[in-house]
Amino acid sequence: MGIRTGSEGGGVADRWLSERAWAAEAAVSDGFDLSECVREPIHLLGGIQSYGSLLAVDPATGLVEVAAQNTGVMFGVEAASLVGGPVTRVLPAAHYDEAVRGTSADDEVPVAFPVVAGQGWPTDGQVDVSAHRRDGLLVLEFEPRTGHAPGFSTFYQGIRRALARLRGAGTVADCCRIAAREMRALTGFDRVVVYRFDEEDGPGEVVAEDVTPGWEPWLGLWFPATDIPPQARRLYRENWIRVICDVEDATVGLHPPVRAATGAPLDLSQAALRTVSGFHLEYLRNIGVRSSMSVSVLREGRLWGLIACHGADPVRLPPEVRSACEMFGTAFSLQLALIEERERADALSESGRRAASVARLLEHGLEDRFAEHVRPVADLLRADGVLLSRGGRIVAGGTGFPEDLVRALGGRAAALTPGAVWATDRLAEVPAGELAWDGPQGEGPAGVLMVALSRSGDFLAWSRGERPAPRQWAADPATPLRVGPRGERLTPRGSSAVFRATMRGRSLPWSARDEAAARELWRLLTELVLRQADAVSALNDELRTTNLDLDSFAHVAAHDLKEPLRGISNAATFAIEDATGLDDTTLRRLHTMRRLADRMDSLLNSLLHFARLGRAGLRVEEVDLGGVLDAAVEVAGPRLEEERVTLRRGPLGRVTADPDRLHEILVNLLVNAAKYARDGADRWVEVSAGPGEAGETVIVVRDNGIGIAPEQQQEVFELFRRLHGSTERGGGTGVGLAVVKRIVERHGGRMWLESTPGRGTAFSFTLGGTAASSRPRP
């Protein structure tokens, strides 16, 4: 299947696998240093397989620059003699011209054509020639035909049937099974497997196979990532097919071994005859394989996996068969892409429907509804936990998120565009520059997917725990290296210890469907929040208009009604003063008329004052509460003395408020304490201030008066609401506490009371700090 690498190494090796993966490899290496596998330049090994020969020609001059050491066997001319001379010494000019015309400087894909062995060639019969360009040279490969070419009609029909069966596959699993079966029928190998990478640089699993009876089945086996190092994966992406005819083949060197122009061996990345790494040959020998072929499977330019073929005997595949296999691999890649895209579209459609159903659960108060429905939100992405961070409020459910991780995710979200998704299935390995979190392994989630909700750092995140690793590996975990007739050699390792150590701290990966569902939920939630914001804005506009209309009505009504009331009161007064001989009943009625008119005038004055409070701005500043209280006592003091109520002062300090409005609040509350003082001696009212929630200052006016019954405590703040008769407890219009509450609310504060009948009442209020309006008062 591939080659193994060790636990030490620099350069590519250190940049390829994580520190954890290298530590895992070291734990089972038995001291066998495999690091050179990773550093080995397998495209510059300076040799070819011996059943063919090779020439590299400068196309501008037609002179041979590099020749295989076996040209004497193939052409009857030694390599040293060929180098520096014209290629037409061994290849007819017509065929050479065909090779030049069939290739171009920007196209490295080989072209093949048959050539009849020329005069003087020791080789008899037909020779297959492949040509491609590499590093400015025309590379010619010669393969003697050892058997008859496959019959065109039979071979073509076989290819057509194979492709038709492939096109009929409806799932990825079916497609892989068909590919393994048809590839074995085309090539005759004893085992053909489809091998899929967990990630492009990760471990791989055998997902389909077709194997001759008697061979050990590999279906479901896993191979660690280090079995195929990065340079091998690069060549698989670049060269779709790789054939090893015989693992016991004696490599043929090149002359010269190093090119003068580059200081390196000839680059054989695209050469079908390229020799094979000794490590890979050892690997194949130890699994009982004599020949092999690998066909790359690519998905959007990335290495999805391989179709790997193994034979018990040497196998020579003619160019026609290799081309057919390469074409089949291309068709397989396209069919996989089609199936996966269809499955992805279906999954995205389904995830969209599921996201819509989850979004409907979150209507009418996002945070509160989220707390009620965390399980459906988590299930949307098959997650273990979910967390919403919005406006400084955190709502979470399922597996918890550590506090420092929540802060780090908030910082990461603030750097993302709203709606952008950030995800990792290995949280412990995320660089500090990407996520400012250094949580210890084993604590908190192993994987996180987050969608940014706003530029201020709001986000919605899902978490997954460390995934279980029930994997079946391709050999005894206790014997990653095996001693045989060739000494200590490579085997398909299959160490579950390696896998578990490498996969620690990883969750199941997040799929494209997961990311799409998160984006769709973000879009739906954004629409929901915007709709709610629009509704609130419209309601506020309507309420603002209604309040203005009510204020205007109250002001106009109060102002316009005062004049006729004054006239009624004056007329009654004049009638009383000027009339003689009136009976007692008529006189009593005139006095009642004047008293009611005066009462109505007082109510209208209160209404006018209440309306003005809604329109007037506030002159907010920092004031000394003690000084404002002194001024209020000058007004309310006589009433307190009249009712024998003593004023007590607690801690006061400074507050932020409109001093005139604060003065009005204190006057009303002090007068209210005098009105509702209890019978007997020791009457008092106390004013104090102290800290409240969120740094607020709470001002308290407490008395030991008659108190308020629980069922009446909210009524006292209503306009014109009195709990006693108009002539009881000093009279009044019932506006004072309503005015106090409105002034407090105009400051952005709140007001409440605590009272026990017979034991007194405490009125508490805040003034909203700097949140109050700072417009100048007219």
Structural features, described:
There is one protein chain. The longest helix has about 70 residues, at about 510-580. A hairpin with a 6-residue loop joins strand 7 and strand 8. The relative contact order is 0.07. It is rod-shaped and about 160 Å long. The protein has 5 domains: about 45-145, Beta-Lactamase (2-Layer Sandwich); about 150-245 and about 290-345, Beta-Lactamase; about 360-510, PHY domain (Beta-Lactamase, 2-Layer Sandwich); about 535-615, Helix Hairpins, CATH 1.10.287; about 620-770, Heat Shock Protein 90, CATH 3.30.565.10. It has about 775 residues and is an alpha+beta fold. It has 20 helices and 28 strands. The strands form 6 sheets. The protein has a 7-stranded antiparallel beta sheet with strand order 1-11-3-2-6-5-4. A 7-stranded mixed beta sheet has the order 10-12-13-7-8-9-19.
Just give the CATH class of the largest domain.
Answer: Alpha Beta
Q: On the 0-100 scale, what is the average pLDDT?
A: 77
For the record, give the distance between the C-alpha atoms at the N and C termini, rounded to a whole number: 87 Å
The CATH topology label of the largest domain is: Beta-Lactamase
Q: How many domain modules?
A: 5
Strand order of the largest sheet: 1-11-3-2-6-5-4
Q: Give the full name of the CATH homologous superfamily of the largest domain.
A: GAF domain
* Rg, alpha carbons: 46 Å
Number of helices: 20
| Estimated helix fraction | 25-40%
Net shape: rod-shaped
Counting copies of identical and different chains, the oligomeric state is single chain
Low-confidence stretches: 1-16, 24-37, 475-501, 723-733, 770-778
